[in-house]
């Protein structure tokens, strides 16, 4: 029951919209602000990380 509740809460709060600048110089969207609403009706995978 607890696992089901956690999954439900995660799916509700995990669907927010955001807009971030694309810093990947090899991307077609380089220097554009993109987020989930930018790629409507497409399957997307989001990775937030940094490299030094």
Strand content: 5-15%
State the total count of DSSP E strands: 2
Q: Estimate the helix proportion, in percent.
A: 10-25%
Radius of gyration: 15 Å
Rounded average pLDDT: 83
Biggest β-sheet: count, sense, barrel? 2 strands, antiparallel
Backbone structural class: alpha+beta
Order of helices and strands: HEE
Q: Can you put this structure into words, describing what you see?
A:
The protein has 52 residues and is of the alpha+beta class. Helix content is 23%, strand content 8%. The protein has one helix at 2-13, and strands spanning 20-21, 33-34. The chain has a two-stranded antiparallel sheet. The longest helix is centred in the N-terminal third of the chain and has 12 residues, at 2-13. It starts with a helix and ends in an 18-residue tail after the last strand.
In short:
It is built from 1 helix and 2 strands. It has 52 residues and is α+β, with helices and mostly antiparallel strands.
Can you tag this structure with a few keywords?
single chain, two-stranded antiparallel ribbon, 52 residues, alpha+beta, 1 helix, 23% helix
Blueprint (SSEs and pairs):
Elements: H1 2-13, E1 20-21, E2 33-34
Antiparallel strand pairs: 1-2
């Amino acid at each position: 029951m607890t696992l089901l509740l956690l999954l439900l809460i995660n799916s509700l709060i995990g669907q927010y919209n955001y807009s971030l600048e694309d810093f990947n110089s090899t991307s077609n969207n380089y220097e554009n602000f993109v987020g989930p609403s930018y790629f409507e009706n497409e399957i997307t995978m989001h990775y937030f990380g940094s490299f030094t």
